[in-house]
Every structure is written in C-alpha cells, then in structure tokens.
Amino acid sequence: MKKVFYWLLAIVITLAAVIYQRKTGPTYDKKLSVEVNNTPYEVKLVRSIEIGSNTEVKLAIDDKNIDARLFYKQFQSDNPYQSVDFVYKEKAVDSYLMNKVFKITEEKGWFAPVPEQPAAGKIQYYFEISDSNGTKTYMDKTPVVIRFKGAVPSSVLAPHIFFMFFAMLLGNLAGIMAVFRHQRYKFYTTITLATLLVGGMILGPIVQLHAFGEAWAGIPFAWDLTDNKTLVAFIFWILAFVMNRKKERPVYTIVASIVMLIVYSIPHSMYGSQLDPETGEIIQGWIQVLII
C-alpha cells in the first residue's frame, strides 16, 4: 500500500512540474486577453516557429470589423521596426502525427507574415488593433519573441520527451522512497540514471542538432541553460548511483531528486541557442554542423 502512495505522490509532483513548464516556457504560445468592439478574446501569440512552416502571427479574433497591424524586427538588433497589416482569413489546417495527416481543423482570424530566420534566429514583435473604440497597442513595452528552429523528426523528439519526463517521474519516486527508507530506492536510482542518460545525454543532443545545427551548447563549450541544467542533473544522479552501490546512502538520492526538481522547474529553452543578428553566428552554442 505504501508503494502505491509513493507512486501517486511522484506522479502528482511530476504533473505539477509539467504544467509549470508549459506555463512558463519561453517558446510556448503566450496567452493575452484583448477586447475588440466590446467583446473579450484570448489570443495565443506564437513564440516558436519551425523553419519551412507557416511563418505567420495569428490573432484568433473572429471579427471582420477591425484593422490590425504587426510591428517586427530582428531580436536585439538596432534595426527599426517594420510593419505589415494583418489579413482576415478562414482556412483549413492539417495536423500531423508521424508524418501522416490525422486531423483537419478550420482556422479563423487575422494573420500577418514575418520573415523566416535561420535556425536559432529570433524576431521580436508587437501589434495594434483598431476598432470602433479607437486604436490599442499591445506588447510594445515587452515585445513577444519568436525563435526559429529546424524540424525535428518525431522518431527522435517523441522518445526524447518521453524519457525526459519518465526520468523525472522515476527520480521523484526514488527520492520519496529514499526519504522513507524504502528498500527499492536504490533500484529506482539506477533506473533514473539510465533513463536520464538516454533522454538527456543521447537523444537531447540529437534533438538540438536537428533544431539548431549544434550537438551540444553547454559547458565546456558555451552556456546554453537547457544543456547545462541537464548536465547538472545527470552528474548528481551519477553521484547518487556511485555512493549507493556498496552502502545505503539515501541522502544522495534525496539530493539528486531535489536537484532534478529544481532543474525541471527552470523554464524549458530559457537562455537557449540564439543567433547573433550582426555576425550571423549562434552565440549560445559552439558545436555546430555544416550541412551542404
């Protein structure tokens, strides 16, 4: 019965961390409430675009009696903002799973194009809406930032995501069992290390390579926070595994579990790979692959 409780507690902690990451990650759509012609809308502002896909900013506002304009420029550049009008569209959009169409949805709203950037390139933008009540400007003080990335095969991305969150689930379970001195905490310490090795240290660099043309952007080559926090967690689980091999030392597993929880609480992709708009070089990551 106790083991069931440990599993349930680990699941709750893991799900809480997943939800927190979804709400705080800098590449997830930013939610914003706007009011148009006295009707409230919640729009999702894009912050990540895959190279070769539809490079548009969408305002999910089903009202044709407005005018909207987008202002954009390269992130952290001295270039002046350029502007383009939003256009109202009604279009069918295909959704894909394992490269097969599985759902067709109808999208209505206002769309404005932004110029596609190389991998790790960024665009910052804000917008204004004119309706019967006048013109309102949104996000001009804190512009929204889009990061462009290469396509990552689902055969790589799906197992990477699975192993990373499964590693966290197992790490939480190992830490909880270590707190209560459950005899199986050593087993789950070993499994957590193996799972993190596959998800973070093997599949992680492959995902990074596809998305940004770099295999590793952390220490000792650069300061990509995503890579570095994975490395820190991995080191602590190595330590927990080694220290528990011949003798029970649950404190090391507890510490590794806490460190992993802190690591996963850091928003995903924060301080990730970024293209310098002046030099055209990726300034966060230095291991790059030239594909001809």
Q: Would you list the SSEs in sequence order as H and E?
A: HEEEEEEEEEEEHHHH
Helix count equals 5
**Poorly predicted ranges:** 285-292
Radius of gyration: 22 Å
Structural class: alpha+beta
The overall average pLDDT, rounded, is 84
- What characterizes the major β-sheet? 6 strands, mixed
What's the β-strand tally? 11
Percent strand: 25-35%
Keywords: Membrane, Transmembrane, Transmembrane helix
Transmembrane segments: 161-180, 187-208, 228-244, 251-271
Q: Which features would summarize this protein structure in a list?
A:
38% helix; membrane; transmembrane; 6-stranded mixed sheet; transmembrane helix; Immunoglobulin-like; alpha+beta; 5 helices; disordered C terminus
Describe the structure.
- This protein has five helices and eleven strands; from the N terminus they run H-E-E-E-E-E-E-E-E-E-E-E-H-H-H-H.
- The protein is α+β, with helices and mostly antiparallel strands and 292 residues long.
- The strands form three sheets. Strands 3, 5, 6, 9, 10 and 11 form a six-stranded mixed β-sheet that branches.
- Strand 9 (122-131) and strand 10 (134-138) form a beta hairpin.
- The longest helix has 28 residues, at 185-212.
- It is elongated, with a radius of gyration of 22 Å.
- The protein starts with a helix and ends in a 27-residue tail after the last helix.
- Residues 285-292 have low confidence and may be disordered.
- The chain crosses the membrane at residues 161-180, 187-208, 228-244, 251-271.
- Keywords: Membrane, Transmembrane, Transmembrane helix.
